[in-house]
Structures are given as structure tokens and as C-alpha cells.
Design goal:
68% helix
Length: 136
């Protein structure tokens, strides 16, 4: 994982550590998100890929929320692809993030997600289909 911001590097370490303080981890995630720096999106997306590779559902949920908050509806393809990976969790937080982004910008969501309906990975296509239900 090659993050460009030391706070993201620290966050990834904390998300990977089952003994890390949850409140401290969430506080750091909130601090990064509240800064509103969209230039951090590539590093956060790399951290999300790392979480998926490590099969870390907790990290996926935290990072997905951060990515959605910083990038809005434009991050839907990344979030839908991440949600299509079965990590054995309920994905409540990530599902809520995706549904909220789609409902907030249904036209933009349709534009971004309709191509995913034809994705070669049926899990991605299914996740996109599910997400589009919130477009009204």
C-alpha cells in the first residue's frame, strides 16, 4: 500500500491491527474526511484495495465511508466494486453509503453505474443493479 499522506498510512496500520483502539481509529478517519481534501482519494482508494486484498471488512466499511464522503457520487463505481467482494460481513455501513449517494444524485448515479450492469464480473453487475434501485 503506497499512501501519500502519513495520516492515511497510520490509518491503514490501525485498520489492520485488531488490537487498535476503535475510537482512535474512527477519530483519525473523521479527521481525514472532515479536512475535505479530495486529492487524498487515490490514496484512500489504494487503502481500500489493500483492505479488500486482506479481506478486512472493517477497513472496507471505514474507507468506503470516507471515500463516499470526500468524492460523492463520482466514487460510486469504486464503492460498488468494493461492495461486490464477499467478505462475509453484512456491509450495512457501505450499503447505506452507496444508497445515500445514489439517492442524492440519481441521474449521476445512473450514468456511472449503468455501464457496470454489463461488467464481466457478475457480482459487480449485481451490486450495480442493487444500487440503481435507489435512483428512483
Amino acid at each position: 500500500m503506497n499512501a501519500t499522506d502519513p495520516r492515511i498510512e497510520r490509518l491503514v496500520v490501525m485498520l489492520d491491527d485488531l488490537e487498535a483502539d476503535v475510537d482512535e481509529t474512527i477519530d483519525l478517519a473523521d479527521e481525514i474526511t472532515e479536512a475535505g481534501d479530495e486529492t487524498l482519494l487515490p490514496a484512500l482508494e489504494a487503502a481500500l484495495t489493500h483492505a479488500l486484498n486482506e479481506r478486512n471488512s472493517y477497513a472496507r466499511e471505514v474507507l468506503g465511508g470516507m471515500i463516499g464522503a470526500l468524492g460523492g457520487a463520482d466514487t460510486l463505481p469504486v464503492l460498488v466494486r468494493a461492495s461486490s467482494v464477499d467478505l462475509g460481513d453484512d456491509q450495512d455501513g457501505l450499503a447505506t453509503e452507496i444508497a445515500g449517494l445514489v439517492a442524492a444524485e440519481p441521474d449521476r448515479a445512473r450514468t456511472l453505474l449503468q455501464p457496470l450492469l454489463k461488467d464481466e464480473n457478475p457480482e459487480v453487475a449485481g451490486s450495480a443493479d442493487w444500487a440503481l434501485r435507489f435512483a428512483g
